Every structure is written in C-alpha cells, then in structure tokens.
Amino acid sequence: MSNHETVNEILVRLFANILYIEERCLRIGEFNDLTITEMHLIENIGFSTERTMSDTAKAVKVTSGTLTTAIDNLIKKGYVERRRSSEDRRVVKIRLTEKGKEAFKFHEDFHKDMVISALQQLNSHEEEVLIKVLSNIEVFFNEKYKYAGW
After folding, report:
1. How far lies 117's CA from each of 13, 45, 121, 125, in Å?
2. CATH number for the domain whose boundaries are 33-119
C-alpha cells in the first residue's frame, strides 16, 4: 500500500470514528435528545452573550431558513432562547440557556479528553510535528475547497 493510500485510509477512518464516537456519547449521555448537528450548533453559539441569527448561519454555512428550523428545535428542547433586537427589530439574537451551556460544557469536555488522549503518548517534538501536519492539512482544505475555517 502506498503512503497516499495509507494516509487516505487513516483520515477517512479518523473522521468517521470521531463523528461516530461523538454521536454515541450523545446517545448514552445526559443530552441524548440532541443530534450531533444540534450539538455542533450549540458549540458554535458557545458562551457568547448573544449572537445574531445571520452571523450564526454564516458561521455554520447554512441558509437562514435551515438555521431557523434548527434553532426552533433547540428552543423546544430548552437549549437556546431567541429574541428580537431592541435596536433593530429585523435582527434576531440567540443565546444558550443554562441547559444549553451545560451541553456546551459537556461537548467541550469531550473534545478536551480526546485531545489529551491523543497527545499523552507523544513527546513534545512529536506534538509539534502533529500540529504542523494537521495545520498543513487544514491549509490544504482551505485553499483547495475554499473552506473558511471556524
């Protein structure tokens, strides 16, 4: 097997496994009423005081209509609240509720554990090499596919 094939297999497995593990942790955890897409939306809203719907739609690369549907579901589930701006009634702002902040923290801890596990077997030089390789992959995706990173 060539290096290209090996790297391809590793990347495909890695991406699929991370998503699978995230979904599995959600299904068995306290926030099992959330989909992985909803959790990533909560992650994007984060601990900010408030965000506009339009800024959030741009950040997660969906239409305003798609975001509205997703936010409606998160409001029904008690994770997000929405209000119109008092300065400009056309502007809709969203923020996490306490329950949403707990879900955000849960997901943040998942990512911290994942990174700690990945790095604990590496020495500092290997960590630097890994960071450089991952950065190069990110640059490749940004340039090749015009992906604007988060």
Report:
1. 17, 26, 8, 17
2. 1.10.10.10
